[in-house]
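Appendix B, Record 12. Input sequence as logged:
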Amino acid sequence: MEARKKKRLELQKKFAKDRKERRREKEQRKLEEGRGRKFMERERKKKEQEAKESKKKLNKNDVWKQKWDEQEEVFKKWKTEQGDDLKEKEEANEQEMENDGGNEA
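Logged structural output:
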C-alpha cells in the first residue's frame, strides 16, 4: 500500500512538471506570435508607461512660484487702483478747500 501511494505521488509530481512545462512553452509561442494573455498584458503596460512618460511632470515649486507671481500682480494692480483713488480724493479735497477758502474771504 505504501509503495502504491509513493509511486502515485511521484507520478503526480512528474505529470505536474510536464503540464507546467507544456503551458510555459504554449505561452512562449503565443507571446512570440503576438497573441495571448501575457502579450496583451505586456502591451498594456507598455502603453501605460509611454503615457506616463509623455505626460509633463509639474514641479510643485514651479506651481507655487507661478501662483505667488500671479498674486503679486493682482496686489500691485489693486494697489495702483487704490493709489489713483486716493490721489483723486486728495485733489477733490484740495479743490474744495480752495473753493471754501475763496468763499470765506
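Residues 1-57 form one domain.
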